[in-house]
Design a protein that fits this description.
Radius of gyration: 19 Å
Number of strands: 8
Largest sheet: 6 strands, parallel
Strand content: 5-15%
Distance between the termini: 34 Å
Structural class: alpha/beta
Helix content: 40-55%
Number of helices: 15
Shape: globular
Oligomer: single chain
CATH superfamily of the largest domain: Dehydroquinate synthase-like - alpha domain
Length: 359
């Protein structure tokens, strides 16, 4: 579905100038959480902060962040159990007297912090507790609606503090999902180039090169992505940040979101809660790479190596639902042209799903 008309983000005044917003400070590594006070001091964001966390991530990292900053700042806390327009509005109220915001947690937490900071014209620091998708560093935020999730343009974090010890301690499924999200950059840029050729859409060669390099980095290091290893967490987190930077350079999510993402959003609507975002994008990328005539088996092998699913069955989704998701993808963000918008038939879609199971 299109995000047009969704009243979650505050309307900004039209400005012909083009801004490129990039994170100023990026800290990735062992015990990186302890660097948060120094990061805040370096950025000089103000004297009061709202820390947004989830119930579990409050115990994993939020409480420690709170204790470190309470000695230096006026600190308030806002708990997030789900993301919705209503929760975002409540969080905005909690942030009324905060000079800046810190999101400590996963996708729901980071996206909430991202939108609240955008609407309040304040900065936010991203502190991911898992590396499940590139939202930890991007300007995009995903918000569930009645008809499925919508992807909204906000702004990227001014800083990212990613503790590889905490990220490595998260379930491996989350890390594998983050890998799959990055590997799907391969097909996202192919779709972008296709839209350029067919519809004259403007492209950024720099953003494309960075996005492709990021995907290649993970494919080349797929054998190193192991459960609960800090080296694995470091490789994936670095790639997720790089992908977020590519989107900031492009001024859109195009370098990291094509038909495979539209397929994932369609699955969210048809089979909510079954697969993780990155997992679904990985499967979508196998399909769209096949349609582009590229090395779809190479993508599938890389996903298998890191422990990500490669078929709907592995996600607990029946094949016919996956077929219908392929057919519905054209209705997700119709302004974003991809290879799934090129007159795909139901029989062709069924053959594509059957292809996933072939050796």
């Amino acid at each position: 579905m299109s995000a047009d008309g969704i009243k979650v983000l505050k309307t900004k005044i039209f400005d012909k100038s083009k801004w490129m917003q990039l994170p100023r400070d990026v800290v990735i590594g062992h015990d990186a959480l302890s660097q948060i006070p120094k990061v805040c001091e370096d950025l000089k964001l103000g004297s009061s902060v709202l820390i947004i966390t989830g119930p579990r991530t409050q115990e994993v990292a939020g409480r420690e962040v709170n204790e470190m900053l309470a000695r230096l700042y006026t600190v308030n806390h806002f708990p997030v159990t789900r993301i919705s327009p209503e929760v975002i509005l409540e969080a905005e109220g909690a942030a009324e007297n905060a000079d800046f915001i810190i999101g400590v947690g996963g996708g729901k937490v980071i996206d909430t912090a991202k939108i609240v900071s955008y609407n309040r014209d304040s900065q936010f620091i991203s502190v991911p507790t898992a590396a499940s998708h590139d939202g930890i560093a991007s300007a995009r935020a995903s918000v569930p609606m009645e008809d499925g999730s919508v992807s909204l343009q906000a702004h990227p974090p001014i800083a990212i503090v990613a503790d590889t010890g905490i990220i490595a301690g998260a379930p491996h499924r989350l890390l594998a999902s983050g890998c799959a999200d990055i590997i799907s950059n391969y097909t996202a840029i192919l779709d972008w180039e296709l839209a350029h050729r067919i519809r004259g859409e403007e492209i950024s060669e720099y953003a494309i090169a960075l996005s492709r390099m990021t995907a290649e980095m993970l494919v080349q290091n797929a054998a190193l992505i192991k459960p609960h290893q800090e080296e694995s967490a470091w490789i994936v987190t670095k790639a997720l940040v790089s992908s977020g930077v590519a989107m900031s350079i492009a001024g859109s999510s195009r370098p990291a979101s094509g038909g495979e993402h539209k397929f994932s959003h369609a699955l969210d609507r048809l089979a909510p809660g079954k697969g993780l975002h990155g997992e679904q994008c990985g499967i979508g990328s196998i399909i769209t790479m096949f349609l582009h005539g590229g090395d779809w088996r190479g993508i599938r092998n890389s996903l298998r190596m890191i422990g990500a699913p490669t078929t709907p069955k592995e996600l607990g989704i029946d094949d016919e639902t996956a077929v219908q998701a392929l057919m519905a993808a054209r209705d997700i963000r119709p302004e974003r042209f991809t290879i799934l918008d090129m007159a795909l038939t139901e029989e062709s879609a069924r053959e594509l799903i059957r292809m996933l199971y072939k050796e």
